[in-house]
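Quick review question:
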């Protein structure tokens, strides 16, 4: 996603981004490629919608706003002005219709990642406690043996 503000996207690129996003969702759920699951069922289980394209468009629009406020920036040096304006208008229309979906599904992904991290930390802590308890038991047993041998 780094530098997506400057990407020139085509329909084929949009399809690849959507495919990658679905691959990410399937990896989160550990769905194998041989499983016969529709994209819709995967998104429904995660309670999310497709968000990467909306996020990219939002970042592009944010950059456009920055560039328009900055008098030293020219957005139309290498592109035809009419085509550029049309793409900006379509991006604005897309962003207005889907601005809420990107935030909620991004939140779901963040929550899933946080839950996985917490589970891993808890498992590591349990292993450490078991090892420490085992060492304490060994130390107590050795101490008792030494006490018995010395008396």
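Suggested answer, residue by residue:
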């Amino acid at each position: 996603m780094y530098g997506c503000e400057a990407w020139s996207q085509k329909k084929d690129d949009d399809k690849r981004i959507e495919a990658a996003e679905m691959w990410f969702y399937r990896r989160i759920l550990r769905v194998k490629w041989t499983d016969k699951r529709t994209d819709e069922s995967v998104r429904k289980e995660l309670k999310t919608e497709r968000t990467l394209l909306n996020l990219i468009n939002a970042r592009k629009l944010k950059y456009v706003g920055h560039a328009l406020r900055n008098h030293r920036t020219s957005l139309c040096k290498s592109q035809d002005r009419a085509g550029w304006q049309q793409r900006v208008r379509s991006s604005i229309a897309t962003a207005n219709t889907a601005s809420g979906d990107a935030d909620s599904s991004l939140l779901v992904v963040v929550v899933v990642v946080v839950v996985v991290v917490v589970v891993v930390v808890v498992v590591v802590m349990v292993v450490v406690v078991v090892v420490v308890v085992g060492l304490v038991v060994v130390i107590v047993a050795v101490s008792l043996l030494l006490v018995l041998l010395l008396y």
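Why it works: Residues 57 and 90 are 10 Å apart (CA to CA). The longest helix spans residues 81-150.
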